[in-house]
Amino acid sequence: LIGQFAAGSGKKAGEFYTPQQISTILSKIVTLDSQDPSKGKKKKLNNVYDFACGSGSLLLNVRKQMGSNGIGKIFGQEKNITTYNLARMNMLLHGVKDTEFEIYHGDTLLNDWAILNELNPAKKVEFDAVVANPPFSYRWEPKESMGEDFRFKSYGLAPKSAADFAFLLHGFHFLSKEGTMAIILPHGVLFRGGVEERIRRKLLIDDNIDTVIGLPANLFFSTGIPVCILVLKKCKKFDDVLFINASEYFEKGKRQNVLWPEHISKIIDTYQNRPLKIERYARTVSMEEIEKNDYNLNISRYVSTAIDEKEIDLQKVNQQLVEIEKDIVKARETHNKFLEELGLPPIK
């Protein structure tokens, strides 16, 4: 029902709802074994966290992937009071007991949730899975003191014009060592310069960015821009980054483009098996190559969707032209004979 309401609500729906097809991709990724996804789904998640949970659809999708007994507890955070209440109601309607979830009404960027402000490392809350679809390029006004915030201190503050990396660093800080984080972001985070480049560089040097997935445009109710999924881990098995360019694999719809199960399966299978290369779709890229590209993660740099043009044999083309000209001369001669028989002037 929430999905149907979102479809009819246009741009306003982006504030509280992640399309089911994208939600499924994120949920499947974070429930797979973090060190070796090819082993399949984890047996249990102690907890899952969405710091911009909206209606709670992403959290419920993770629960669906794991089964009702596969998650210890669900944690969500939402700034909008109406949407916060919607998320709580949504949990109860889906049979989640009030002891099995905790949704907090507050500002993620200010981090005003008491359980997440524990300074004692021994008591720090960590999550086995973090999923999020935060507001794209959200404008914020961080105070100078936030530069010393434990979430951002080692990286720097995201620019005022786009809080994308602030959201990412918040979620990543609370990710457990064996956990997986999957976050939806605009493509700008992959290549923008300045402080965002420094944040991206550190995450790459620290070997925390595992996979970059490019999705088709026009999948959301709130925006037509193409987005990407970043998969992050604190303890990676592989010293490289997997790039998946799924931007051309969809079916065009009347309002939004659609990812069918086969499109989703192709993304998940590629993430699980981590191939060296799938032509025009995916490639595993070494850190050395990424470093040579100045830590720019623009997907097209590593996975081109361009179709190679056939090589033209100029000598062969020239010979064809010569033969065509001979045929034209021969045809003109034949035509002029007919004209001569009719007593008409020839064509020059």
Please name the defining characteristics of this protein.
ten-stranded mixed sheet, Rossmann fold, elongated, alpha/beta, about 350 residues
Task: Explain what the structure shows.
The protein has 348 residues and is α/β, with parallel strands linked by helices. The chain folds into 2 domains: 300 residues, Vaccinia Virus protein VP39 (Rossmann fold); 40 residues, no CATH class. Helices cover 32% and strands 18% of the residues. The protein contains 9 helices and 10 strands. It has a 10-stranded mixed sheet with strand order 3-2-1-4-5-7-6-8-10-9. Strand 2, helix 4 and strand 3 form a beta-alpha-beta unit.
Structural domain tally: 2
Determine the CATH topology of the largest domain.
Rossmann fold
Contiguous runs where pLDDT drops below 50 for at least 5 residues: 4-14
Radius of gyration from CA coordinates: 27 Å
Classify the secondary structure makeup into a structural class.
alpha/beta
Main beta sheet: strand number and arrangement? 10 strands, mixed
Fraction of helical residues = 25-40%
What is the CATH level 1 assignment of the largest domain?
Answer: Alpha Beta
Mean pLDDT: 91
Would you report the number of β strands? 10
Going by CATH, the architecture of the largest domain would be 3-Layer(aba) Sandwich
**CATH superfamily descriptor of the largest domain:** Vaccinia Virus protein VP39
Order of SSEs? HHEHEHEEHEHEEEHEEHH
Strand order of the largest sheet: 3-2-1-4-5-7-6-8-10-9
- Tell me the fraction of residues in β-strands, as a range: 15-25%
Q: How widely separated are the two ends?
A: 77 Å
Instruction: Please count the helical segments.
Output: 9
What characteristic shape results from the CA principal axes?
Answer: elongated
